[in-house]
Design brief:
51% of the residues lie in helices and 16% in strands. The chain starts with a helix and ends with a strand. By secondary structure, it is of the alpha+beta class. The chain has one domain. It is rod-shaped. Helix 2 (19-79) packs across helix 3 (85-95). It has helices at residues 3-10, 19-79, 85-95, and strands at 106-112, 115-121, 131-135, 151-156. Residues 13-24 have a biased composition (Basic and acidic residues). The chain crosses the membrane at residues 32-51. Keywords: Membrane, Transmembrane, Transmembrane helix. Residues 1-27 are annotated as: Disordered.
């Protein structure tokens, strides 16, 4: 309350319905509503970021085992002297998956010339890196992003 309204209130006048006081209350209410909206938006975005990170970690935890399994299947297909050993290995895995893959993305076998990698294609809520790949030659390597120009064979889900 400003000084004039304070003097009027001290003399017993009802100043609650004064336009200046109502305007102050309205501004205060709008500020609180805007602050509440910003807090809710921050919580939602933070929750989505956490969900993206949890999905990425779950998928990347299984990639080394998937790379080892796929390397074995590719070697077996090459030993059988089939026309397309990479496609054969992907088909074998799809028909008889030996690993329990978490349902957080699409698991792929990527072939870039001679380089093979086990990949997961994630669909993050907030954007960012979609692919995490581990080379079949080094399954214990740190998962990295994928840089285009490859043939993908879908492993799971179908």
């Amino acid at each position: 309350m400003d000084e004039k309204l304070g003097d009027l209130a001290a003399r017993g006048y009802d100043v609650d319905n004064d336009p200046r006081e109502r305007a102050r209350q309205s501004r205060r209410r709008r500020r609180l509503q805007a602050l509440g909206a910003v807090v809710v938006l921050g919580l939602v975005l933070g929750g989505l970021a956490v969900l993206d990170e949890v999905d990425r970690r779950r998928a990347e935890a299984v990639l080394p085992d998937l790379a080892r399994e796929l390397a074995t299947r590719v070697d077996e297909a090459q030993a059988r002297d089939v026309d397309m050993p990479v496609a054969e290995a992907a088909d074998d895995f799809r028909d008889d998956p030996s690993l329990e893959l978490p349902g957080v993305g699409t698991y792929l076998l990527a072939s870039n010339g001679r380089k093979l990698a086990a990949c997961v294609d994630l669909d993050p809520w907030l954007g960012g890196r979609r692919y995490s790949c581990v080379p079949l030659a080094d399954p214990d390597a740190e998962p990295t992003g994928f840089e285009g120009g490859a043939t993908f064979y879908v492993l799971a889900p179908e």
